[in-house]
Each structure stands twice: as C-alpha cells, then as structure tokens.
Amino acid sequence: MNGTEVGLGGVAVLLVLILLRIPIGISLITVSFGGIWVLLGARPAWGILTAIPYDFASSWALTSVPMFLLMGFFCYQAGLTTGLFDAARKWLSVLPGGLAIASIFGSAGFAAVTGSSVACAAAMGKIAVPEMLRYGYDNRLATGTVAAAGTIGALIPPSIIMIIYGIFAQVPITQLFLGGIVAGLLTTAGYVAVVLIVSAVRPDFAPPVKERVSYAERISALGDVWPVLLLIAGVFGGLFSGIFTPTEAGAAGALLSAVIAAVKRTLTWTAIRSALSETARTTAAIFVIAIGASLLTRFLTLSGAGKFLSSYVIALGADPLTLLLGIALMYLVLGMFLEPIGAMLLTIPILMPVMDSTGMSLVWFGVVLTKFLEIGMITPPIGLNVFVIKGVVGDLATTTRIFSGVLWFLIADLVVVAALMAFPEIVLYLPSLIK
Predict the structure, then answer these.
(1) 261 within some domain
(2) Domain count along the chain
(3) pLDDT tens-digit map of 64-81
(4) Which residues contact 154 (CB under 8 A, 6 or more apart)?
(5) N or C: which end of the chain has fewer CB within 10 A?
C-alpha cells in the first residue's frame, strides 16, 4: 500500500473504533501511532509519540484552558452563581413562561464564567428544574429549557471549544470570543421566543406564577448577582481593553473568582479541593483528545491522506453554500455520537485546507462550528446535556420526555444557524472592530 492508502485505511479503522464506543482520545492515539509505525517504522513512531504530547501540552496558549475551567469551578463550588436564577426569577416571573425564561437568562449569566455547556446544564438543572416543577410547569418544558440553555455555555466567552479551535486553526481567540457573544445572545433570544410561543399555545405547560414580588425584593435580589458581574467586568474588561491576553485572562479570572469567593466567605477548603480536582480531571480528558488530534494531523500529513481528502472535496467544485450544508450535516450527525471537542478535533485536520481554499473567514467558521457542535449536545440519541439533566432530575422526568422538550429548542437553533450562515457579518462585525 502507498502512503495515501495507509492514511485512508487508518481513517476507516478510526471510525470503526469510535462506533465501537472506544474513547475517542484512545482511538485517535492508537490509530495515529499504528499508522505512523506502518509508514515509517517503530523507531520514528515511538519518537513522534514521545515528542508530540510534550510539544502540545507545553504550549503557552493552552494554559488558558485549565485556568478558565478553574474559574468556572471556583464559581460553582463557592456558590457565586446561585443568585443568578433567583434574580432572574424575581424580575421575569410575571412573563408567560417566566420561570423558563429566567432559567435561560440564568444559564447565559453562568456561561460567562464557565466555558462548559455540561457544567452550565448541571448547575442550572439543580436550581431551576425543581423550581419550575414546583410551580406546575410541564416537565418537558422545564427540563428541555435547561438542557438547551446549557449549550449557551460554549458560545458566550470564555468558551473552551473556541479556545482549542483558535489554537488549532491559528485564529485570534479574542476575535472568536467577540463573535461568540453575538451568537450566544441570538441563541438566548431564540430560546426565549420558543418559551413565549409554547406558553401562548399551551398555557397549561407554564402556569402563571401567582407569587407577588415587590420592587424592593427585586432590587435586593440584584445584590446576589454582583460576584458574577464583577468577574465578567474584570476578566473581559481587561481582555478586550488589552490589559492582558486571552491566555492571561484565564489566570486573572481564576484569581479574581477565588478572591471574590474569599470576600463572600464561601471559599472553603472543600470548595478549593473540589474545584482543583474537577479542573484536573476535565483538563486531562481534554488534553488526551487534543494530543490524539495532533497525532492524527501528523499521521494524515505524513501519509498524504489529509491532502488527498481535502483536494477531493475541493475538486468536487461545490459552491460555498453546498459545502457549508454538507459540513453542517456532517457535524449534526457527529454530534449525535461524539462529544463536541472530540468531533471538532477529529475533523479539523481535513477541513482546514478546504476552508482556506474557499476564502471563508476562519473566525466566522469557528463560531458556526461551535454552534453546530452544541446542537449535537441536545440531539438524539446521545445528547449529552439531556443525560446530564436526567441525572440531575432523576425520576422527575424520563429521558424521552426531556428529548421531547428539547425538540422545540432545536427549531430555534436551526433558525439561528441559518441566520449566521446567510449573514456572516452578524458574527464578524464585533471582531472587525479590534483588527
């Protein structure tokens, strides 16, 4: 076999391993190492396996990943975000479906201090779902709202997916963050519209909250939101004003969240231990997948398969719209079976040359790609956010009921994606201001 055939065979084996439910990081590393061994022999394969993990993990830019994770876990463990839903509830409960809308805004606020949609869904699920069910909300609307709203966590900065995409695609992370803000706000607006429509069509799904909340109570509730507002202002004010880089912003955010928690007297040793432990576990899982993707990139380059696949796609002569629709379909399918970072890193080595050849903005593509990946988090049969919510609510709702509730929000997601694809300037306007 020539190099290209070895490379294509490796891709086929990789897909088989993934279908067999082998962890994607292990699959990537195993196939890449075995493929390089076949191409170059055992000694070069071991040399590459030794060098690439160190070269990748020692990248200065990657230090922002554990730091932003630590910031989010400090906020969660120290209870800095607990006031978000309560404040939103007191201000928005008068609206049709007000508690569901409060859940969406609470998730958007939580998204600004953590880059994980899973963490966002888990945190809001523990707080918001029982509250909605207590007021008589249909469990499909209650659970579906929080599962979908959790995906905002990967769009509104800091987004771990965008950080890793920016490093691999060599795109300024600050510009990705700015584009993600617009996409996240559009998604939030779309989800709110869904709740308003469902509440109007099926009032029994979201009974009015008869609790009277005084203006003084609403103002008082805003006092519990100050930790998140201060953190957002400190991190993103410093980031976008140029005081520190995106890499340094993660460390600044982690430090600021710890200081705020200490001032509030919620930074216990248990909270510190839990935050550090969860950060280490999550970072390790992300890095194993990312190192596997780096090895796959090297394998595809050495074999020529990456260039062959990219050239084949380019040679099809598809217009940009057809190409984008094909990419959209691919990610929607991958999202049903793979977690977002794995799906992204599996495909970037092949797609980047294709995107370069079309002249499309890699900033815009990164934001749209993030949106596609997050849609996969609530898409049957393996919508990870859905199973996170199921784990949180237990017997209060079946998995089928949660997926049923999510379907309404998938329609809003498709509308948002269509808008982002039809009008790229929606994403690119804010990034263009800092060029």
Answers:
(1) yes
(2) 1
(3) 888 888 888 888 787 777
(4) 111, 115, 116, 117, 160, 161, 162, 340, 370, 373, 374, 377
(5) C
